[in-house]
Each structure stands twice: as C-alpha cells, then as structure tokens.
C-alpha cells in the first residue's frame, strides 16, 4: 500500500539582490512575489534565499545552487540572467 502526499506551492518569487544598495531598501530587490504576503515576510524569505545562494557558492564557485531540501519544503532556484533569481518553494 502506498500513500500519496500532496505537493503545494508555498511561495514563488523573483528578485535581484543588486537592486538594494543600502540597508532599509530591501523591498527594492523584490520583482514578483506570490502569494501576496506581508512585506516583512517577503524580505525574510528572500534574505534566506540569498544566504543559501551565497553559502553554496563558497563550495562550488561559478555553479549556482539549484535546489535545497528541508524536512518540510523543497526550494528550487533558477538564475535566468546574472543577479536575477527565480525561487519556488513547495511543501510536501
């Protein structure tokens, strides 16, 4: 007997980390965010994604992070152009 687990989209966002030059301008990084959430939640999630991307670059320079699996989520990272990131977070 097998059990099926439903996969649900928790977040999808597009950001460019170079668009915020100073502290307090983090909202300028956000190009698109779904579903609509409080700005503080958006900034926190994008900050976490930036930290994961920068951390993984230290292990393999030139090869950006593609995905990150946690106990509850799967995060998929795609860089269509330099400095632009698309991130999809799903719950399973």
TrEMBL record:
One of its GO terms (cellular component) is Mon1-Ccz1 complex. Coiled coil: none annotated. GO terms for biological process: vesicle-mediated transport. It comes from the Eukaryota. Residues 9-90 form the CCZ1/INTU/HSP4 first Longin domain. Belongs to the CCZ1 family. This is UPF0550 protein v1g238755. It comes from Camponotus floridanus. The lineage of its organism: Eukaryota, Metazoa, Ecdysozoa, Arthropoda, Hexapoda.
């Amino acid at each position: 007997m097998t059990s099926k687990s439903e996969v649900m989209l928790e977040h999808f966002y597009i950001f460019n980390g170079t668009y915020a030059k100073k502290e307090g301008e983090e909202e300028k990084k956000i190009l698109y965010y779904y579903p609509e959430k409080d700005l503080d939640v958006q900034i926190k999630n994008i900050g976490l994604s930036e930290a994961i991307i920068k951390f993984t670059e230290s292990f393999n320079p030139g090869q950006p992070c593609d995905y990150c699996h946690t106990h509850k989520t799967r995060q998929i990272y795609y860089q269509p152009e330099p400095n632009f990131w698309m991130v999809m977070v799903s719950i399973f």
